[in-house]
Amino acid sequence: MKINKIMTKKVGTISPTSTVTACSATMKELNIGSLVAMQNGSVEGIVTTWDITSKCIGSGKDPKDCTVFEVMTSPVYTADFETDVMEAARVMADQKISRLPVMQLGSLVGIVTFADISQAVDQFNNDVLGSWKT
Protein backbone atom coordinates (compact mmCIF):
# COMPACT_ATOMS: atom_id res chain seq x y z
CA MET A 1 0.00 0.00 0.00
CA LYS A 2 1.23 3.49 -0.86
CA ILE A 3 1.22 6.37 1.62
CA ASN A 4 -0.92 8.46 -0.72
CA LYS A 5 -3.81 6.20 0.33
CA ILE A 6 -3.46 6.98 4.05
CA MET A 7 -1.99 10.50 4.17
CA THR A 8 -3.82 13.61 5.28
CA LYS A 9 -4.18 15.81 2.22
CA LYS A 10 -4.85 19.11 3.99
CA VAL A 11 -1.55 20.11 5.55
CA GLY A 12 -1.20 23.09 7.84
CA THR A 13 1.70 25.31 6.81
CA ILE A 14 3.40 28.39 8.19
CA SER A 15 6.29 30.66 7.29
CA PRO A 16 9.56 30.18 9.20
CA THR A 17 9.50 33.91 9.94
CA SER A 18 6.14 33.72 11.76
CA THR A 19 6.11 34.00 15.53
CA VAL A 20 5.54 31.02 17.79
CA THR A 21 2.41 32.81 19.03
CA ALA A 22 1.02 32.91 15.47
CA CYS A 23 2.07 29.30 14.98
CA SER A 24 0.26 28.20 18.14
CA ALA A 25 -2.87 30.11 17.11
CA THR A 26 -2.86 28.40 13.70
CA MET A 27 -2.44 24.97 15.30
CA LYS A 28 -5.35 25.71 17.63
CA GLU A 29 -7.54 26.97 14.77
CA LEU A 30 -6.81 23.88 12.64
CA ASN A 31 -6.90 21.54 15.68
CA ILE A 32 -3.55 19.96 14.77
CA GLY A 33 -0.25 19.37 16.55
CA SER A 34 2.19 20.34 13.83
CA LEU A 35 2.72 22.68 10.91
CA VAL A 36 5.07 22.38 7.96
CA ALA A 37 7.28 25.45 7.63
CA MET A 38 7.26 26.53 3.98
CA GLN A 39 9.17 29.24 2.16
CA ASN A 40 8.90 29.94 -1.56
CA GLY A 41 7.08 26.63 -2.09
CA SER A 42 9.82 24.64 -0.39
CA VAL A 43 9.59 22.60 2.81
CA GLU A 44 12.02 24.23 5.24
CA GLY A 45 11.07 22.52 8.49
CA ILE A 46 8.35 21.14 10.69
CA VAL A 47 7.20 22.58 14.00
CA THR A 48 5.28 20.61 16.61
CA THR A 49 3.70 21.44 19.94
CA TRP A 50 6.70 19.70 21.54
CA ASP A 51 9.09 22.04 19.67
CA ILE A 52 7.14 25.05 20.94
CA THR A 53 7.09 23.74 24.50
CA SER A 54 10.69 22.59 24.73
CA LYS A 55 12.57 25.04 22.51
CA CYS A 56 10.64 28.23 23.22
CA ILE A 57 8.49 28.29 26.33
CA GLY A 58 10.55 25.76 28.28
CA SER A 59 13.71 27.67 27.43
CA GLY A 60 12.31 30.92 28.81
CA LYS A 61 11.80 32.61 25.43
CA ASP A 62 8.82 34.85 24.73
CA PRO A 63 6.57 33.21 22.08
CA LYS A 64 5.73 36.67 20.72
CA ASP A 65 9.40 37.25 19.90
CA CYS A 66 10.48 33.69 19.08
CA THR A 67 10.16 32.64 15.43
CA VAL A 68 9.17 29.32 13.91
CA PHE A 69 12.68 29.14 12.42
CA GLU A 70 14.17 29.09 15.92
CA VAL A 71 12.11 26.09 17.06
CA MET A 72 11.37 24.08 13.93
CA THR A 73 13.06 20.79 13.15
CA SER A 74 15.19 21.02 10.03
CA PRO A 75 16.13 19.45 7.71
CA VAL A 76 12.91 17.53 7.26
CA TYR A 77 12.67 13.97 6.07
CA THR A 78 10.01 13.67 3.39
CA ALA A 79 8.50 10.84 1.39
CA ASP A 80 7.39 10.59 -2.20
CA PHE A 81 3.68 10.25 -2.98
CA GLU A 82 4.33 6.66 -4.18
CA THR A 83 6.35 5.50 -1.14
CA ASP A 84 5.25 2.20 0.35
CA VAL A 85 3.69 2.45 3.82
CA MET A 86 6.21 0.02 5.32
CA GLU A 87 9.15 1.96 3.85
CA ALA A 88 7.75 5.18 5.34
CA ALA A 89 7.40 3.39 8.69
CA ARG A 90 11.05 2.30 8.49
CA VAL A 91 12.24 5.84 7.80
CA MET A 92 10.14 7.21 10.66
CA ALA A 93 11.39 4.56 13.08
CA ASP A 94 15.03 4.95 12.00
CA GLN A 95 14.89 8.74 12.30
CA LYS A 96 12.71 8.72 15.43
CA ILE A 97 10.11 11.01 13.88
CA SER A 98 6.34 10.82 14.00
CA ARG A 99 5.40 12.92 10.97
CA LEU A 100 6.49 12.70 7.36
CA PRO A 101 5.52 15.35 4.79
CA VAL A 102 4.55 13.80 1.45
CA MET A 103 5.86 15.28 -1.80
CA GLN A 104 4.79 14.85 -5.40
CA LEU A 105 6.80 16.43 -8.21
CA GLY A 106 8.46 18.79 -5.71
CA SER A 107 5.22 20.00 -4.12
CA LEU A 108 3.83 19.28 -0.68
CA VAL A 109 0.68 17.17 -1.16
CA GLY A 110 0.10 15.64 2.26
CA ILE A 111 1.46 14.43 5.55
CA VAL A 112 1.52 10.99 7.09
CA THR A 113 1.84 10.36 10.80
CA PHE A 114 2.97 7.32 12.72
CA ALA A 115 -0.65 7.03 13.91
CA ASP A 116 -1.83 6.88 10.26
CA ILE A 117 0.62 4.06 9.56
CA SER A 118 -0.34 2.20 12.72
CA GLN A 119 -4.01 2.44 11.81
CA ALA A 120 -3.32 1.20 8.25
CA VAL A 121 -1.32 -1.78 9.53
CA ASP A 122 -4.05 -2.57 12.05
CA GLN A 123 -6.69 -2.41 9.31
CA PHE A 124 -4.55 -4.69 7.11
CA ASN A 125 -4.26 -7.18 9.96
CA ASN A 126 -8.02 -7.13 10.49
CA ASP A 127 -8.83 -7.43 6.78
CA VAL A 128 -6.28 -10.00 5.73
CA LEU A 129 -5.33 -11.96 8.79
CA GLY A 130 -8.84 -11.81 10.23
CA SER A 131 -10.16 -13.68 7.20
CA TRP A 132 -7.96 -16.66 8.12
CA LYS A 133 -9.75 -17.18 11.41
CA THR A 134 -12.27 -19.97 11.41
List the helices and strands and how they pair.
Elements: E1 13-14, H1 20-30, E2 34-39, E3 42-48, H2 49-56, H3 68-71, E4 79-80, H4 85-95, E5 99-104, E6 107-113, H5 114-129
Give average pLDDT, whole number: 93
Element order: H for helix, E for strand? EHEEHHEHEEH
Distance, first to last CA = 26 Å
Strand content: 15-25%
Could you state the oligomeric state of the chains shown? single chain
Going by CATH, the homologous superfamily would be CBS-domain
User: Percent range for helical residues?
Assistant: 25-40%
Largest sheet composition: 3 strands, mixed
CATH topology: CBS-domain
Q: How many β-strand stretches?
A: 6
Number of domains: 1
Which residue ranges are poorly predicted, with pLDDT under 50 across at least 5 consecutive positions?
none
